[in-house]
Amino acid sequence: MNKRVVITGLGAITPIGNNVEEFWKSCKDGICGIDHIKSFDPSNFKVKVAAEIKNLNETDHFKRKISRRLDRYSKLGIIAAREAYRDSGLNDENVDKSRMGIMVGTGVGGMNTILEEHENFLNGGSNMISPLLVPKFIPNILSGNLAIEFGINGMVNTVITACAASANAIGDAYRIIKHGYMDVVMAGGSESCINPLMMGGFTNLNALSLSNDPKRASIPFDKEREGFVMGEGAGMLIMENLDHAISRGAHIYGEVVGYGTTCDAHHLTAPEKSGKEIIRSMELALIDGNISPEQIDYINAHGTSTPYNDKIETHSIKEVFKENSSNIPISSTKSMIGHLLGGAGAVEVIASIKGMEEGCIHPTVGHEVYDEECDLDYVKNESRKKYMDYVMCNSFGFGGHNTVLILKKFNG
Amino acid sequence: MMVFEELKKIINEIMDIPMNEIELGSHLYDEMDADSLDMSQIVLALENKYSIEIDDEVFEEFDTVGNIVEYVEKLAA
């Protein structure tokens, strides 16, 4: 028999807040976390802005010996996971760790470490490459680190589907719990790659905004949008079957009720123009949750601020929601935190869950210029009060991955 | 004693153990909680510092800081 799957813990570290409370307050206030790049000197780069985490002293979180063993993407993931685990009230006594799993996503893994060690190699030869290179950069090592930290012995996996990775991780965790393979799963994602190599690569792919104005760089659905803004951060959830959550008296934030995932099978980076597989991913999520399109109260869009995504996502929403599409509020968290790639889906699910809990939709900030091809209700610039029962979260990624989650307010 | 002083610096950097707590008789695993990743880093640091090549199999049998010092002093002599 299928189990109901609920969310009982949240953790986040983002460019607009280093925990869930700070992040969500900034979301409601429409704070933009994008600024001129500080992680490296961008003088010789066309790209000038990014959404970096502020005021993070890594030594407050990790002892030196452990810190040396962790790429920043792992550190961010662990910080978010600690918050989610603490928030959930789980401990060694109230969960069977052999029935607990981990499902986390990342786009590129420990790319910062690869760069550092490649520089060591170029400067001093192969004997200068640290033995820690491999255990720091491999993209599954965040999962491994979390398993060690929390003593989790169940199904521990990593999902790599570019910008849809943590949405897929949450979706896969939902299925694993729904079908009874695990009772509890720590699910989410992390990314940190605001470094010269990745920024240069994404720039030359014409994917990034080259704006020098941090407030006019990530402007989803605005006619003047020209690309996404790289962000860094992590989001983690504790997900568990409803009976398990009730038996230990956990606070329940909401329920995951629908998951649809498809692939364009069309192009390495560009979305397929008719949006047919995006449309199908939304429809599959609705069918999975046995929900009609009219029941969706809000859409947290993928909304990257690239010319193609926002246009095709808008078109796809219209195809699914028909005449009702203009009545559904849509917003893009990326307008405030940039694009967290493999961390994006999880952080956006957290924004959606908090929004449902408080009856508040965060805005799409920075929106100024109307685009006739993006003509829906994007909750421009100011948050909006609305009671919500069902929320749809969209995430799409290079490789043609389309992933849609549907969350439900928990009403017992 | 030069190798010992250098090794203390290396261990401090890699394992975050205060230099004044590291003695020739300190046990790498029982007292200092070293693991294979610590040992790999220590080996590489010593190889690069003294331009020597350390036999991994010999190194794995060392139990104390003094064992390492003695071995490296012989190789570097």
TrEMBL record, chain A:
<keyword id="KW-0444">Lipid biosynthesis</keyword>
<keyword id="KW-0808">Transferase</keyword>
<dbReference type="InterPro" id="IPR020841">
    <property type="entry name" value="PKS_Beta-ketoAc_synthase_dom"/>
</dbReference>
<feature type="active site" description="For beta-ketoacyl synthase activity">
    <location>
        <position position="163"/>
    </location>
</feature>
<keyword id="KW-0012">Acyltransferase</keyword>
<dbReference type="Pfam" id="PF02801">
    <property type="entry name" value="Ketoacyl-synt_C"/>
</dbReference>
<dbReference type="InterPro" id="IPR016039">
    <property type="entry name" value="Thiolase-like"/>
</dbReference>
<comment type="function">
    <text>Involved in the type II fatty acid elongation cycle. Catalyzes the elongation of a wide range of acyl-ACP by the addition of two carbons from malonyl-ACP to an acyl acceptor. Can efficiently catalyze the conversion of palmitoleoyl-ACP (cis-hexadec-9-enoyl-ACP) to cis-vaccenoyl-ACP (cis-octadec-11-enoyl-ACP), an essential step in the thermal regulation of fatty acid composition.</text>
</comment>
<comment type="pathway">
    <text>Lipid metabolism; fatty acid biosynthesis.</text>
</comment>
<dbReference type="GO" id="GO:0005829">
    <property type="term" value="C:cytosol"/>
</dbReference>
<dbReference type="Pfam" id="PF00109">
    <property type="entry name" value="ketoacyl-synt"/>
</dbReference>
<dbReference type="InterPro" id="IPR014031">
    <property type="entry name" value="Ketoacyl_synth_C"/>
</dbReference>
<keyword id="KW-0443">Lipid metabolism</keyword>
<dbReference type="InterPro" id="IPR014030">
    <property type="entry name" value="Ketoacyl_synth_N"/>
</dbReference>
<comment type="similarity">
    <text>Belongs to the thiolase-like superfamily. Beta-ketoacyl-ACP synthases family.</text>
</comment>
<protein>
    <recommendedName>
        <fullName>3-oxoacyl-[acyl-carrier-protein] synthase 2</fullName>
        <ecNumber>2.3.1.179</ecNumber>
    </recommendedName>
</protein>
<dbReference type="GO" id="GO:0004315">
    <property type="term" value="F:3-oxoacyl-[acyl-carrier-protein] synthase activity"/>
</dbReference>
<dbReference type="InterPro" id="IPR018201">
    <property type="entry name" value="Ketoacyl_synth_AS"/>
</dbReference>
<dbReference type="InterPro" id="IPR017568">
    <property type="entry name" value="3-oxoacyl-ACP_synth-2"/>
</dbReference>
<feature type="domain" description="Ketosynthase family 3 (KS3)">
    <location>
        <begin position="2"/>
        <end position="409"/>
    </location>
</feature>
<keyword id="KW-0276">Fatty acid metabolism</keyword>
<dbReference type="GO" id="GO:0006633">
    <property type="term" value="P:fatty acid biosynthetic process"/>
</dbReference>
Automatic annotation (TrEMBL), chain B:
<comment type="function">
    <text>Carrier of the growing fatty acid chain in fatty acid biosynthesis.</text>
</comment>
<keyword id="KW-0275">Fatty acid biosynthesis</keyword>
<feature type="modified residue" description="O-(pantetheine 4'-phosphoryl)serine">
    <location>
        <position position="36"/>
    </location>
</feature>
<dbReference type="GO" id="GO:0005829">
    <property type="term" value="C:cytosol"/>
</dbReference>
<comment type="pathway">
    <text>Lipid metabolism; fatty acid biosynthesis.</text>
</comment>
<keyword id="KW-0963">Cytoplasm</keyword>
<keyword id="KW-0276">Fatty acid metabolism</keyword>
<dbReference type="GO" id="GO:0016020">
    <property type="term" value="C:membrane"/>
</dbReference>
<keyword id="KW-0596">Phosphopantetheine</keyword>
<dbReference type="GO" id="GO:0000035">
    <property type="term" value="F:acyl binding"/>
</dbReference>
<keyword id="KW-0443">Lipid metabolism</keyword>
<protein>
    <recommendedName>
        <fullName>Acyl carrier protein</fullName>
    </recommendedName>
</protein>
<comment type="similarity">
    <text>Belongs to the acyl carrier protein (ACP) family.</text>
</comment>
<dbReference type="InterPro" id="IPR003231">
    <property type="entry name" value="ACP"/>
</dbReference>
<dbReference type="InterPro" id="IPR009081">
    <property type="entry name" value="PP-bd_ACP"/>
</dbReference>
<keyword id="KW-0444">Lipid biosynthesis</keyword>
<dbReference type="Pfam" id="PF00550">
    <property type="entry name" value="PP-binding"/>
</dbReference>
<dbReference type="InterPro" id="IPR036736">
    <property type="entry name" value="ACP-like_sf"/>
</dbReference>
<feature type="domain" description="Carrier">
    <location>
        <begin position="1"/>
        <end position="76"/>
    </location>
</feature>
<dbReference type="GO" id="GO:0009245">
    <property type="term" value="P:lipid A biosynthetic process"/>
</dbReference>
<keyword id="KW-0597">Phosphoprotein</keyword>
<dbReference type="GO" id="GO:0000036">
    <property type="term" value="F:acyl carrier activity"/>
</dbReference>
